[in-house]
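Let's do one together. I've listed all components of the complex below, 1160 residues spread over four lines.
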Amino acid sequence: MIQSVAFIGLGAMGYRMAAHLPQHFDTVYVWNRNFEKAQQHATEFGTLAIELQNAVQADIIFSCLPTSQQVDEILAQVQLKSGSIWVDCTSGVPESARAQSEQLLQQGVRFLDAPVSGQTIGAENATLTFMVGGNTEAFAQALPIMQTMGKIIKHVGESGTGFAVKAVNNMMMAVHLCAAAEGFTTLKAHGVHLQEALDCINASSGKSGVTETVLPQRVFNRSFPLTFALPLLAKDTGIAVDLVREARISAPVIGLTQNLIQVANDLAEPNSDFSTAIKMYESWSKITLE
Amino acid sequence: MIQSVAFIGLGAMGYRMAAHLPQHFDTVYVWNRNFEKAQQHATEFGTLAIELQNAVQADIIFSCLPTSQQVDEILAQVQLKSGSIWVDCTSGVPESARAQSEQLLQQGVRFLDAPVSGQTIGAENATLTFMVGGNTEAFAQALPIMQTMGKIIKHVGESGTGFAVKAVNNMMMAVHLCAAAEGFTTLKAHGVHLQEALDCINASSGKSGVTETVLPQRVFNRSFPLTFALPLLAKDTGIAVDLVREARISAPVIGLTQNLIQVANDLAEPNSDFSTAIKMYESWSKITLE
Amino acid sequence: MIQSVAFIGLGAMGYRMAAHLPQHFDTVYVWNRNFEKAQQHATEFGTLAIELQNAVQADIIFSCLPTSQQVDEILAQVQLKSGSIWVDCTSGVPESARAQSEQLLQQGVRFLDAPVSGQTIGAENATLTFMVGGNTEAFAQALPIMQTMGKIIKHVGESGTGFAVKAVNNMMMAVHLCAAAEGFTTLKAHGVHLQEALDCINASSGKSGVTETVLPQRVFNRSFPLTFALPLLAKDTGIAVDLVREARISAPVIGLTQNLIQVANDLAEPNSDFSTAIKMYESWSKITLE
Amino acid sequence: MIQSVAFIGLGAMGYRMAAHLPQHFDTVYVWNRNFEKAQQHATEFGTLAIELQNAVQADIIFSCLPTSQQVDEILAQVQLKSGSIWVDCTSGVPESARAQSEQLLQQGVRFLDAPVSGQTIGAENATLTFMVGGNTEAFAQALPIMQTMGKIIKHVGESGTGFAVKAVNNMMMAVHLCAAAEGFTTLKAHGVHLQEALDCINASSGKSGVTETVLPQRVFNRSFPLTFALPLLAKDTGIAVDLVREARISAPVIGLTQNLIQVANDLAEPNSDFSTAIKMYESWSKITLE
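Okay, and this is what the predicted structure of the assembly comes out as:
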């Protein structure tokens, strides 16, 4: 029986995710490197802001950090309670998940790699998607808590596979982004009305998440709001290429896209949204997608 | 005032498209190279199966043929009525549209390139998408007839742009297909449960028309039903690359995808559905996506 | 028996090529759009600078112009003598060669597409390579004159194949250039001494014309002398991709390289040597190859 | 003063390389996993075939093994003499070199990664190229011994850089191989005489080691002799891509080529020479390069 839940890392996603927990559980610990944010969360949502070492004594610990490295740093500092479950919602590295899983198992703790998608709006509305790798029994035990924050929650395989699915998802999005940039600059060069063309494609076989939301909401209106930073997409496409290499798969389109996102990231201004990768193509063709 | 409409080419799409016309117009001529099919259409839907030269005397003539070449062959045989409008629903070549448009204008006839998407089910339910290039006034005149067969009908620019949008749509679908093949073989190599991964991705940023319909309905169930032939996709990706070349756009992902679809087509059995391009990747990795 | 030879187009190559002819033939006509250059040639080498219409009355006419378009413009202005042979040393378009060949044949004139390689130094020393397409008999007749300017002179096939070989040669060079840029920026990022690495590679299986001459003579010394303009390389790689498309060959590396050279050309300053394509890679990696 | 030299690994390369040592040094130990080969070498060249543990007591130890893994296995078995130098001529992994270098340094032994090029003929004639990474002083001490086996011997940087240069060399060769396959199938599809085209290109800017030796000696004559196995080239291109990834370089042509060589290797028969990668292209285009 779960008595206590902790949430480590209260960034844009974690802050909103942890907000749902007090409605379902009596004891919810929160911790954040900048501790004021944890205190603010406690005030706002009735969670308990406590020291890291105490927070991780919960039955189930969630973490949501920028990269697997920060998770490693946290894990190196703490002593965990045998029997607990660590659910890492970071968009992490599959290999790290396998190492972390083995390391925690020696302390009697099970580790699930459970990255999420759905952005801050999904975190706010508890409609996130969880793609979860790791022990099946631990997944079953953690499922009710994940259900308070998400809608589609899938066990996709053994340790590391959750991170793998997330990395491949983001890689596929990156491919679709490049395809859209190339396709729409070509159309505009031929005098096509972009909005009308987009309406047609979104009702046809060529549609994607990118054509349905990224182009109309971020690119055509030239807003490029920073919600998912380009360097993080570059990191994720790198993880995807490492998965390809490790499995000795031939994936030329993925390989090329990783290189293109790398170039876009090398050339981008700091704090650029992933959608600014489009601007690399615009600088090549001198065509603006608006 | 439109008195008569004609439909030239009663293939899988045209047969169903023309079926809606008699509900809205008194005089609907149909013609097909294999004329028995035209006679069958007349019996079934109350259209008039007449000789090509007479059919094209309608106020508005629709055509739906395999490639622009067949349209050229028809146009070479007939004498048109000044003031009429020719609406070509073929997935044709933009350059041909421009040539055909100029040629027909000399006979006082306006030409619209108006390819459709939505497959046979969309043709049957009159929910097709029309992407239309050509004269704006002619578009306005032809719009009511297109509305009897489609739902989203957009004027995307001058002559040839309708075909351009269709080619780019299909090219983007081809890119998404390659991305899905590469991503999912990689995931399976890492022991990921494919159906669960697909459920996650279809609720995330990496989704596309391919992940939403092609993978579950054609690939994972190993049905690969022939509804859109791989050689036609190869043709369309070739048209898209020609558009890129003509506009001197840099489009590396599109260029690579055209080459990959070409290889898939070179290696495929005759009468293969476009979705069998996945099998090329499967033969490389010895991994089956099921 | 050849009585007279003409040379049309006295650019950096043509001026030096035509200089060898008076040693072997009594009557050598020269013509150039900027006619002063023709007069200067006459003074310097004993050729005869005459009007275009008279020059092309020679038994064998050579031309060496920027692109096939200039050749077309010249051909449109002149009336040729039946029985003469036109040898075009332009790096031209195969399709143009076939059209020009047919057009001249109607005047009883045979056309050879005979592009050259070897740069200005080869033109000066009469050590050029001629790759020649067209009628075999015409080739045999023109061979002695080509031998006064070149060393390796090969009949590579029918009309257009000379241009095809030149375009593919330049495309292969472009691929090698990209490979060198990518390989050497990677090595420098790993702290490798570039000159020593180049010495090793030039004695190993990875060597190419680019590693043997372009890197040491143009890049590592940062001279980038303008001898072959980047827009011309972009044009040639485009011709190569058109050959690939026409033959329905799958050539992913060629396709990608054409796109990269296009980007490099879009971003380059005017009057850039082809070797400045390297600078595109340098701007991406912030690594300078010196 | 060097008193003794050892050579570990008497494969096609090592056997010939070690043969030169007795002419210059009194004490030359040889060892090979299949020990009979060591004994045969001793008989043939006057070396001393002794047990591994004794052989590695030499002042300078050379190794030449299939991959870095075999070197690791050997190193795990032996105790080395402080002050000695280990020169590894394997085409190894840069990261392994750095680890091996650190590991041996703790035993007072310096490690040089010193892969060679020049094939068996170069080993036989002592005309190999050595690309060497590691400590400069150790390099200076080992140089005289390397000079008995090679001609061009370069210190290219710190530990691991020798392997890096070799991997990049082989990757560049792989790129040139793909470019040649694509270029020449395209030319043949256009009816070009291949041998004449090759003669022209080998006298022009598009030449490479591949066009100068691989095409004429292995491909056009359809011999494809097994001297460098395709799986080893696949391994080396993988090492090169890992170098690219590690340095966060954008290298699209290298990335694509690694994928293509992977496909070629996945589809090839066992014991195929690297040059059979050409056959992948031939199977796509149904064109044979002969």
